[in-house]
Design a protein that fits this description.
Blueprint (H helix, E strand, L loop, with lengths): L4 H14 L3 E5 L7 E7 L2 E7 L19 E7 L6 H12 L8 E7 L9 H8 L9 E5 L8 H13 L2
Parallel strand pairs: 1-3, 1-4, 4-5, 5-6
Antiparallel strand pairs: 2-3
Keywords: ER-Golgi transport, Golgi apparatus, GTP-binding, Lipoprotein, Myristate, Nucleotide-binding, Protein transport, Transport
Main location: Golgi
Family: Belongs to the small GTPase superfamily. Arf family.
């Protein structure tokens, strides 16, 4: 899950092909910070690809200012680290700068036979406890692009309606 750099690259490439003030966080391991500006459905998104290594996570908060939407990518096949993903997600969402940001969770790797479905990930991430936050979970497969447009449509509509 979190060590699959090529999978994350596919997400960034596919999103930047179709997408322009959104903040993407992932627990995937990469050492750098990359930014792309793209447009999707008349909304300009600034897509930040920030590293997920433990030592980099404290730096995430420096990118939260003016964030209207957050995409959080979860490896649906990695049951061992879903608790870590939940803890990081809730830690971020408690940051004051993200209080008004909508949340899109991409439940990735749905093509794998043992992947948790969206309902199970919703439960394990504690999404129902986010009563004051507008959120949505979308099953996805980064390699095929399945589910990406649906998630981005939800995100675009909810940012545009703010």
């Amino acid at each position: 899950m979190y060590n699959n750099r090529s999978c994350w690259s596919v997400y960034v490439c596919r999103i930047t092909e179709i997408l322009e003030s959104i903040f993407i966080l992932s627990l995937y391991s990469n050492a750098g910070f990359n930014v792309e500006t793209v447009e999707y459905k008349n909304i300009s998104f600034t897509v930040w690809d920030v590293g997920g290594q433990d030592k980099i996570r404290p730096l995430w908060r420096h990118y939260f200012q003016n964030t209207q939407g957050l995409i959080f990518v979860v490896d649906s096949n990695d049951r061992d680290r879903v608790v870590e993903a939940r803890d990081e997600l809730h830690r971020m969402l408690n940051e004051d700068e993200l209080r008004d940001a909508v949340l899109l969770v991409f439940a990735n790797k749905q093509d794998l036979p043992n992947a948790m479905n969206a309902a199970e990930i919703t439960d394990k991430l504690g999404l129902h406890s986010l009563r004051q936050r507008h959120w949505y979970i979308q099953s996805t497969c980064a390699t095929s692009g399945e589910g990406l447009y649906e998630g981005l449509d939800w995100l675009s509509n909810n940012i545009a309606n703010k």
